[in-house]
Amino acid sequence: MTARKIVPVILSGGSGTRLWPMSRPEMPKQMLALTADETMLQLTAGRTFGGRFAAPIVVANARHADLVEQQLAEAGATAQALILEPIGRNTAPAIALAAIAAGGGSDALLVMPSDHVIGDVAAFHAAIEAAMPLVTQGWLVTFGIAPDAPEIGYGWIQIGDELQPGVNRVARFVEKPPLDKAQSMLASGDHAWNGGIFLFLADAYLEALAQFDPGILTATQEAMDKARTEGARIYPDAVAFAASPDDSIDYAVMEKADRVAVVPVAMGWNDVGSWDALHAISEIDADGNAHRSHGGGNVLAIDTKACFVRSDGVRVSLVGVEDLIVVASGNEVLIMPRGRSQEVKKLTEAMRSHDQN
What we know:
Blueprint: E1 6-12, H1 40-46, E2 57-61, H2 65-74, E3 81-85, H3 91-101, E4 108-113, E5 117-118, H4 121-135, E6 140-145, E7 156-164, E8 167-174, H5 179-188, E9 191-201, H6 202-212, H7 214-225, E10 228-230, E11 233-235, H8 238-242, H9 249-254, E12 260-265, E13 269-270, H10 275-280, E14 290-293, E15 298-302, E16 308-311, E17 315-319, E18 324-329, E19 332-337, H11 344-356
Parallel strand pairs: 1-2, 1-4, 2-3, 3-11, 6-12, 14-16, 15-17, 16-18
Antiparallel strand pairs: 4-9, 5-13, 6-9, 7-8, 7-9, 8-12, 10-11, 18-19
């Protein structure tokens, strides 16, 4: 029997506000070349080129339609469907749209955020193959990232009994924990980070939605029934889609379903959720500085240590400083101590509030 094709589902609706000022609503982080010459979206699509994989289904914000198509074309990829959300409704409805677009049958869907780094693609593919026997039996599978720190910004997964080599039952999902709990889970050795990557049959996911969160299934099915199509582009009905509950796949399905498995994997994963996270995976010079410039921007650093510097235009010059994050994009400049980049979200919220007053 020929091995079935796996349909990549790339979720590209996020806004990436924690990487302001480079990531903005009109150009979110998945559209940026942050870790390589290719953009995050292009790198994600490239992990599933050819062979075992079908052409991807991409779910994106309607305002980014041209940008998504352009970047995929530059990477040599073509989406079999580009589903354009009229508004954001979290991951559970977005994946439901993709499952319906795939025909809602026995196709295996590999759900991937468009803005993560995976350094070891071979390990990722091996984890996918380990999961497939259970997937074909209707199990919902997630991938547990081997943790290397007591991370409080991620959800965690407790790894249960082994179901088959390399695949375990999920004992429980853990919400973003306080530090002492994260330290305990790291030390226990039987927990993994929840990386937000999933593998299951389209019909298994839709059946789980029908059981655990039927409002999402009803709204997304109506939105797709009334959708407008233009070639590969699918525009779900805005009114119907707006009626969908705004729930994550973890909350709507994974935490409630019975047959949920996890594949623990070390694959060089990083969600690049902050400037500090990007600094951690960047090449650094002899003084511990990481700097990369785009679009003619450049960086000059003298007597400077352990700084992360980015510019897409103006020259950024530093003298006698250390442990700073400096990002210049267009007319905006961000300066903060390293270690506090999670607070960028507070900054963007404060700016939004200021602009409205």
